[in-house]
Specification:
about 600 residues; two-stranded antiparallel ribbon; about 65% helix; rod-shaped
């Protein structure tokens, strides 16, 4: 009985010794961690002492033409750093505000350039196609309808010039009536075609009809229908295709104008809260003597500041711009479809020839109608008109159609798709840069180096009211310039929607009709957003082509691992030391409890 008790006591003693060595090891590790933290803290205090001299940041401020005041100068009220006085902070606030505008200007100019170049490329392609088509038509008439060719040359040129004038810059008209132009063309062509192709008596081709007889033919055009249904088909296809193309290039130009106008907005629209945080994020680390590049601003802090400032500045443009971008995608699809202007222009010479062939094939019936309406043709007395020499074939216009701008249009589609929620994505493209710390730990929070504890506020005016850095102070604040730009985008979107609707009404395609049904739903959903256009309604990754920095760095922030005065060490290291001491205390308590049990036994 005593032997077993002794064995039990011996075992308990061995357990206690093992636990004793474990505890000693833990305490040794803990001592090393504490010593490391103390050494790190001592190093941080040494670095923070550099604030007194401000020598570490003097060279940086020299590069931006800011003079660091003497140590005796009072600290600025925003950064609370000995390296910047209140006057210096005012100067730095103006610089950071201007940097913010430069970033916005850089992104808008990139997108504006795409819109302007797309309008130019598309317009030039259409004009080039019309010149080629005109030349082909004149050559066709010269070869096939030689008698009427000299007399039809001017009406043909006028028709093509009308097409070019509608799509040329500074020639836009809200009352596009290309259909009437086409109708007038065929009306004026009727006397020429009837005289030189249909009637074509042996000796009459060298004499012209009397002016009264010409007028009779033109006035009875609708009743006689000499070219059948072809004029109506040509007029309808040109009306819808030229109209849609005109709206497309005009919307591109005016959309670019809206972007250009945002660059001219005064920084007075930014609130003092925004300007203050732009200063904090840009220059406050330097005002505290922190060396450039040693630490990054927190990602979430950057996001909240930029979202708040953009909402105050141009955030109300985000929703109408997204709707405008969606409508432009749809319109380009229609403009470049088989019913679009490129195809219509390329087939125009064939349609005009078909009209003349229709009149020739129905010559006997047509002559009966003409004699019934206008009587026997009368020629000008004692006057013959010689056929002028036709020099059409001397034109240097290439016979092969100019290559379509497929690559440029594809680039535009990719860009315009990524520009949706454009102003929201500016924030993402800026704050996801390597200049900012994604983990939100050990980074500049605006007041200190540490962990940024606020979450990123969702986009939209309603959410920005709760922005911890730049709250939306007055969502109904009058901003005449921005409201005008919002109205322009809404009107542009409606113009594009009308062009899409008119185009679809003329296209006898089930697929096109189903596409437009989806488009109708899109416009209805957009209309519900018009009442609340003050916010940024979405976020996403920015387009690589829209990324970039003005001067390489958006804000001239500098980074330092030194801690703000009063901070005992890095939050991560302090936390790890506290956790280890907690575990050590728990182990000691457990050992004490086991020793008590062993002694009792």
């Amino acid at each position: 009985m005593s032997c077993s008790r002794g064995l039990k006591c011996c075992l308990n003693l061995n357990h206690v010794l093992v636990l004793f060595f474990v505890v000693c090891s833990l305490f040794l590790v803990n001592s090393l961690v504490v010593a490391k933290n103390v050494n790190h803290h001592h190093q941080d205090m040494t670095e923070s002492s550099n604030e007194d001299s401000c020598d570490a940041v003097r060279s940086f401020f020299d590069t931006i033409n800011v003079t660091v005041p003497d140590r005796a100068t009072d600290s600025g009220s925003i950064c609370n750093g000995r390296c910047c006085s209140n006057a210096t902070e005012d100067e730095l606030m103006a610089k950071s505000t201007n940097n913010f505008k430069q970033i916005l200007r850089h992104h808008t100019r990139s997108l504006r350039g795409i819109l302007e170049s797309t309008a130019t490329i598309f317009r030039e392609n259409v004009i080039q196609l019309s010149l080629q088509s005109e030349n082909k038509t004149l050559n066709l008439f010269n070869q096939v309808y030689r008698r009427m060719s000299p007399f039809s040359r001017q009406p043909i040129s006028d028709l093509y010039q009308s097409i070019r004038s509608h799509i040329s810059p500074n020639s836009y008209t809200d009352n596009l009536d290309i259909e009437n132009v086409v109708t007038n063309f065929f009306v004026s062509l009727f006397p020429v075609a009837y005289h030189h192709v249909v009637h074509a008596e042996s000796d009459t081709h060298s004499s012209d009809f009397h002016v009264d007889y010409k007028n009779c033919l033109m006035h009875t055009f609708e009743d006689i229908q000499p070219f059948g249904d072809i004029p109506r088909i040509v007029a309808r296809s040109l009306q819808q295709s030229v109209g849609a193309a005109t709206v497309f290039v005009r919307a591109l130009d005016r959309g670019a104008d809206v972007l250009a106008s945002t660059e001219e907005l005064d920084s007075e629209y930014l609130t003092h809260k925004c300007k203050m945080h732009l200063l904090k994020m840009s220059y406050c680390p330097e005002c505290r003597g922190m060396i450039k590049g040693r630490v990054k601003s927190c990602y979430s802090y950057c996001s909240n500041v930029m979202r708040g400032c953009l909402t105050q500045y141009v955030g109300s443009l985000d929703s109408p711009w997204t709707s405008f971008a969606e409508s432009m995608e749809r319109l380009l699809g229609l403009v470049r479809s088989k019913e679009g202007i490129e195809t219509v222009i390329k087939t125009l010479e064939v349609k005009l020839s078909e009209a003349i062939m229709y009149a020739m094939q129905n010559g006997p019936e047509l002559e009966k109608k003409v004699k019934k309406s206008c009587g026997t043709p009368t020629l000008l007395p004692n006057e013959k008109t010689a056929i002028p020499e036709d020099r059409v074939q001397q034109s240097g216009m290439p016979q092969k159609w100019v290559s379509p701008p497929d690559t440029d249009m594809l680039h535009f589609l990719v860009t315009i798709d990524k520009s949706k929620e454009f102003y929201s994505k500016i924030v993402t493209s800026i704050c996801e840069d390597e200049e900012y710390e994604r983990e939100d730990k050990g980074c500049w929070t605006g007041d200190r180096i540490g962990e940024y504890t606020h979450g990123v506020i969702a986009t939209g005016a309603n959410s920005q009211k709760y922005n911890p850095e730049v709250p939306l102070e007055n969502p109904y604040r009058a901003n005449t310039k921005i409201n005008e730009l919002v109205d322009k985008l809404i009107n542009l979107r409606q113009t594009v929607a009308n062009a899409i609707s008119q185009h679809s009404n003329h296209v006898d395609s089930d697929k096109m009709q189903s596409d437009m049904a989806e488009g109708s739903a899109m416009w209805n959903s957009d209309n519900s957003d018009d009442s609340d256009l003050d916010g940024i309604d979405g976020s996403g990754s920015g387009d690589g082509s829209l990324r970039g920095r003005v001067g390489g760095v958006p804000f001239d922030t500098t980074r330092s691992p030194s801690l703000s005065p009063g901070m005992g060490g890095s939050p991560d290291k302090v936390a790890s030391g506290n956790a280890l001491r907690t575990w050590s205390f728990a182990v000691v308590t457990l050992v004490s409890f086991l020793v008590m049990l062993a002694s009792n036994h």
